Amino acid sequence: MQHGKRHDQGIRVIGIDGGGTKTVCVLGDGEGRLIAGSRGESSSLTSRPWEEVTRVLLSLIRDVLAQSGTEPSELSGVFLGLAGSDRPEDREQIKSWLEQELPESVSITVHNDAVTALIAGTWGEKGIALISGTGSIAYGFDPATGQFVRVGGWGYLLGDEGSGYDLGRKALAAVMKAYDGRGRPTALTKLVLDHLSLHDPAQLIRSVYGQTNVRTAIAEGSKLVMQAASEGDAVAVELVEDAIRELEALVRRAAEAMGIPLLVEPAEGGETGERAVPLVLSGGLFSDPVFERTFRETPLLRSGAFDIRLLMHPPVVGAYMLALRQQGCELTEGIKEQIGAFDVQSLWNGSSME
Description:
Blueprint: E1 12-18, E2 22-29, E3 34-41, H1 50-68, E4 77-82, H2 88-101, E5 107-111, H3 113-122, E6 127-132, E7 136-142, E8 147-152, H4 164-180, H5 188-195, H6 204-209, H7 214-220, H8 222-230, H9 234-258, E9 277-282, H10 289-296, E10 306-310, H11 315-326, H12 333-341
Parallel strand pairs: 1-4, 4-5, 6-9, 9-10
Antiparallel strand pairs: 1-2, 2-3, 6-7, 7-8
Helix pairs in contact: 3-11, 4-7, 4-8, 4-9, 8-9
């Protein structure tokens, strides 16, 4: 891909997906061509200081403008899907700030990051996105009614059950309980200590609390839980099972709120049938094949109510599509094919922001 090359398609839009671990930004034209991309740190409004959030966002926007040779005055719109931006006042704060940084002609929309994953996985049709990354949330949309449904996603202090952070925190707690003699011995102890280059569980206090981004560092521990569970550690297996139950509960409630029938038995032949609604699975935990397979085997997921899809495009693609829609662009089959055939990862391969 050649940065700096202009395409004469008129519309230039930016899509941003900001999660609890990283923020991804792309710039594309009105015909489905993605031209530039950049990645940076988390821009979650619930876990980062305001100054850090704005620094990350402005840096990425400036980067993709520079890469593509686009002047700010040539930009048509920006769609931001940011973790922790559910409250109207939070969205308005981001929008007002960005309006001061960009020309008045640029339209700006701010939503939470779940909607970007949903649109990237369903192309705008009725469905539910279940995200289990640093945080967790179930988010549904029905274009026929305009209904949005949100379950969970209340942040690491009030919720995020079944997320990477939740799983990592419980793993650390299990290690400390075992160290005290209040809990069962677990293989997690050695895995955690080796991962952090420590010799004794008592050293975890300084190591964990001294992290620059504690939430992200703890969420990384979920990978160790998966490893221990795959090796048969009873404590880790229970933690994974608890996480799956929490995620199943998120989907169940979202489906109930959207009026989606939940079948008791699988449809005949195991097929989902006409009533199946897309359920898009996104986030780091679902990148683990064992976790994903185990989740698919829950009674709710085997009910035949859902067309289960792993997110095939990065959520930032959903932000780009929503940016196009806010410009009145129809997501034609040609645009979908153009986006679907493009390797989004190539936009930042080899970047120092990787």
